[in-house]
Amino acid sequence: MSEMASFFYTTGFAYLGIQNLIMLFFAFVFIWLALTKGFEPLLLVPIGFGMVLGNMPGMNEMLQSVTVEGSTLHSLYQGIKMGVYPPLIFLGIGAMTDFSTLIANPKLVLLGAAAQFGIFATFLGANLLGFSVLEAASIGIIGGADGPTSIFLTTNLAPHLLGAVALAAYSYMALVPIIQPPVIKLLTTDQERLIRMKAPRLVSKREKILFPIVGFIATALISPGGATLLGMLFFGNLLKESGVTERLAQTARTSLIDICTILIGFCIGTTTTANVFLQKESILIFCLGAFAFMIATASGVTFAKIMNWFLKEKINPIIGAAGVSAVPNSARVCHHVGQQYDKSNYLLMHAMASNVAGVIGSAVVAGVFLGILG
Length: 374
Description:
Layout: H1 2-8, H2 18-36, H3 41-54, H4 72-81, H5 85-96, H6 100-104, H7 109-114, H8 117-128, H9 133-140, H10 147-157, H11 162-174, H12 176-187, H13 190-193, H14 205-222, H15 227-242, H16 246-271, H17 274-277, H18 280-308, H19 329-339, H20 348-373
Helix pairs in contact: 2-3, 3-11, 3-16, 4-16, 5-10, 5-15, 5-16, 8-9, 8-18, 9-10, 10-11, 10-20, 11-18, 12-18, 12-19, 14-15, 15-16, 15-20, 19-20
């Protein structure tokens, strides 16, 4: 009997508690949303299964959890803690991004800038609710709807919030199809949703090559703290557009970004344990993250409407919602919302211009926070 008792305490059953069951339930919800609803499965499946692994009873006792120094999970997590994965993901994003529409219609960069208001509004709100300035900045960046940027900034400013902030950022990226359409419809009229935008002009190869070089220099001068993310983004785009490094661009936008996405999602999931997630602070971060995302969406739409007061060629304000950084999901959502009112109105390319401007904008804001607060 003593041998049976000893064996029992080597199993997970000996340490199974209600908190484990609650976290496993949330993990299954994430996986269910990915598999049945198609909500960013490339993100939610790794995160969901990582949550399953991280919340298995007995992981700590057997020295296998992500918090145990020397464990395999702890070693994998160093890619997040040391800021390795986010820049590599930005490299892949740059290698798959076509900036042509933004180059052809540069005023759309203002929509990406306007959407960043959600970050600053949430920063102020979090600070008023009792979070420190460093914590508030890390929470506010969720409004950029950019998981790698959220991880990059939080790692530097408030690493103890990394699990909650990263999970919130990636969760809201996946929930773009649920969160954004109601905000768009609330702030636009039927007439505004029917606005047609003319096809963008053709952009020369020279312009495409010069854009990542000039774009990086300009943004890095404004925000040196974001130079790592911005540099990798524009470097990836230069690999794509140069025409002589296609093998490198192909690797960056396929194998490399896929590997990093798997590792970053899985590691985030393993850190989302009951003692972190089931806390008042974490729940408040999730609520603030939702607020940030809705304000960012509303800011982009509202600014597009304001721009139309001064433009002869009107902008469909729907694309302002794509000013957040959830590439390309947000742009697709804007396109689908527009087609609900006019099936022949193709907003995707215009929304992508706003969307990639949002990627640049969120990295610039992260760099500003890092420069001031870091």
